[in-house]
Amino acid sequence: MDATVSHPGRPRHSSAQPFLAADVGGTHARIALVRASDARDHGVEMLAYRKFVCSEHSTLDGLLQLFVEAEAAESVRGCVLACAGHVVGDDVMHDNLAWPVSLSRLRGALGFDELIVLNDFEALGYALGSAQHLDARLLCGPDVHPAAPTLVVGPGTGLGAAVRVATSAGAFVIATEAGQMDLAPQTLREREVLARLAPDGGYVPCERILSGPGLLTLYRTLCALNGASPTLENPEAVGAAARAYADRQATEAVDLFCASLGSFVGNLAMTFMAGGGVYLAGGFLSSMFDLLHRSDFATRFLHERSVRTFLERVPVRVIEHGQNGVLGAARFYIDRRRLAQAARESTTECCPAK
Length: 354
Description:
CATH architecture of the largest domain: 3-Layer(aba) Sandwich
Order of helices and strands: EEEEHEEEHEHEEEEHHHHEHHHHEH
Strand content: 15-25%
Distance between the termini: 39 Å
Strand order of the largest sheet: 1-8-5-2-3-4
Radius of gyration: 22 Å
CATH class of the largest domain: Alpha Beta
Number of domains: 2
Helix content: 25-40%
Number of helices: 12
Largest sheet: 6 strands, mixed
């Protein structure tokens, strides 16, 4: 998903000038003032960067304005916004953002000449262009970087996923709503959990349990099934208790979470034939790397599939979300502006003004 909103009649913003790159999720917003680097690799030069808690701000335009007033020495005319959701008309359709997002309101409130919007995992996909330089930890599979489609998946406030495909003309990223796929239990215990979540049947999305809030839901559901009173109040507490084997329900919740995530990621890797590898993104998963490593994630990633031989060759790595979404969005913006400029120059050469 991406959408461009420009003021008609105003001069086009140049990517050589500073612009805003924002990565807005359900919990945190990461905002940077950036510009195209003069280096040969056409990278991104970050001039300022801040991370905000979304719930502490009443509107997105107010949050962006706060950053601009604090960090920009002059007016900022361009912005690329990566956010959890997809553009429908003038609005961003989403389930997990802290506020409604209107493109015309953002453009008007901050005076942008150009506003480009893309999905947050789409932005992470563009950050994978320098995957070998990411601070990644190998979870399973071979330690290689094949030239093939690459998948990025991240349980956070919700469950996002995108696939990056490299071509001779450059890379493109396909955003998905894979987190809204139907939850598909494999074990009898997982079926008990699903029956508890939807006692009368019906739709249960994968992100209902494969997310930060989902881990807490899983823990509370297991407490109910076991006749125990829940004592843990957030996903971090569930992970800590499981790490210390201090709570039976927490330990089982993490085990089920990791196993179900392995099945989900294996399904996506198989769907997109992601021979380039899988990147599990976000601070949530990074903080529980040890729990993932000792879990059945790898077993369920392969799980008796007919394409097991292919999946055994797919590396699965865990990366921090960090600034990757901001940098991926900025690279997308710079590449888009560079291609547009090249197209205009080509048109001028072919059809010079009379």
